[in-house]
Design a protein that fits this description.
- There is one protein chain.
- The chain folds into three domains: about 45 residues, lambda repressor-like DNA-binding domains (434 Repressor (Amino-terminal Domain), Orthogonal Bundle), CATH 1.10.260; about 130 residues, Rossmann fold, CATH 3.40.50.2300; about 130 residues, Response regulator (Rossmann fold).
- Helix content is about 40%, strand content about 15%.
- The strands form three sheets. A six-stranded parallel β-sheet has the order 2-1-3-4-5-11, sandwiched between helices. It has a four-stranded parallel β-sheet with strand order 7-6-8-9, with helices on both faces. The protein has a two-stranded antiparallel sheet with strand order 10-12.
- Helix 10 crosses helix 11.
Length: about 350
Amino acid sequence: MKKNKTVTIHDLARELNVSASTVSRALKEHPSIGKKTIQAVKELAQKRGYRPNRLAVSLRSQKSHTIGVMVPLINRPFISSLIHGVEEAAREAGYQVIITQSHDSYEMEKDNVQVMFDSRTSGLIVSLAMETENCEHFSPFLDNNIPIVFVDRVPEKMKCHKVSIDNYNAGFKATEHLIEQGCQRIAHFSGASHQNIYKERLRGYLDALEHHKLPVDESLILKGKVLSAEEAVNLTEYLLDLPSPPDGIFSANDTAAVSAIQYAKSRGVKIPEELAIIGFNNDPISMIIEPQLSTVSHPSVNMGKLAFKKALELIEPGEAAHIIKNQSIELDTDIIVRASSFRNPT
């Protein structure tokens, strides 16, 4: 047998002097095959480095037992935790996971959708790119009844299955926390306004101000493209240079909130006495920054597990199939109060 040749079932069959179908059944431990034959086949398969051709199996059965996961950026703690949840649930169900990232680019997301479709994935779990406003590129999946479950960044108007958090309530609670600490001029760092998660967090912020009879100052509502650390430096600089700077900031992610703390401190601003700050996601960095960052918890691992569970229900429907169409699952969040916002007013 040549060294670099891919070992097939037929190679194993010739070496053992049995049929290829016997080898195939032995590898699956089919009851029609004796234990000694099964053991001999498995030992030789391991020795020769045999690997099953999953693509060929999927072409025959029309089932790949593979889930595609499309996310904006893998290196963000929230996203990596989300993927962990998907992978853990998928592994328990005997599914493999293929992961792609859009880098928040609409065009790259479109390319990734085509790759996933060509790879014959059994289903798709998607967190939309920041640039994405139109979801027509998911049509190949929808037209062929291949399940899609959107998670976290979900389309607002599209009828589909979604797993997200109550972003409105989270935004309200985060803003209200700053008000309870004595803040009167609260700024908000928001993401792209067409993304539902940022729209809802902004709505919660505005309603909290109104509920507590505080005026809305449009100059304090700032939007970033991706809410990066670099963007946050510029946004915080703008705020601190205002004739009447804010005394609180609610950031729609932790990355921008941490950057705001660092820049404000470099300007001699005392945190939280002069500027109280709260972020969103409870990323690990929130515990490393000094002072530690108050934030909103985001049940990312659980969201990943629920997204896969819903996808699996659609791929392998049981008795409850199609009872709930286009289901939206919303999870609650909690405020985690740390030193960056806690003033303990008397």
